[in-house]
Amino acid sequence: MLVRLPELPNRAAALTALEDIFFLSTLRKDFASAEERAAFFRTWTGWYVERAPDDLWFALAEDGTVIGYLTGCKDSAGALDLARIIPKYEVFADRFAAFPAHLHINVRPGFRDHGIGRALVDRFAEDCRADDLPGLHLVTGVFARNVAFYQRAGFTAATQRGALLFLGRRLD
Question: From edge to edge, which strands make up the β-sheet containing 66-73?
């Protein structure tokens, strides 16, 4: 089941699960302090929780356990404060007009390769299409293991800049 953050009965528990999944999924594992770890988490999730809760989707198992999440923004160009928060946000700003929405997604280990990530992406894409957006995008590493997943999910417009790869999905 896919549910938006505001629709969840226990928002605090969902956000705790998001944090757990985030740190299970991130490549960075070492932090000098708890404060540094918390700041890293806020960098990559804080804006979405605070400013775009309707674009924060959770995948729930039958028992209600959070098994994945998607954070999204439907106006990448208009979210100027994200450019000050997320490193290298502006690298692909010239692609935002064609692909104005963006997303970040993570699925709990043990639940990957079961269509959960694809369901989250497709649900966010439906929302973006309903808002008449022409496309959505994400940025990953050129050699990241998730590139093939995103290509299968329809992200076929690719632009590489250095080690970063922009992948866009047209919605029209």
Answer: 2-4, 56-60, 66-73, 101-107, 135-141, 164-170, 157-161
DSSP the chain: -EEEGGG-S-HHHHHHHHHHHHHHH-S----SSHHHHHHHHHHHHHHHHHH-GGGEEEEE-TTS-EEEEEEEES-TTT-HHHHHHSTTGGGGGGGTTTS-EEEEEEE-TTSTTSSHHHHHHHHHHHHHHHTT--EEEEEEETT-TTHHHHHHTT--EEEEETTEEEEEEE--
What's the predicted TM-score (pTM) here?
Answer: 0.93
Residue-wise pLDDT tens digits, 38-50: 999 999 999 999 9
Distances (CA, A) of 121 to 84, 155, 161: 25, 10, 24
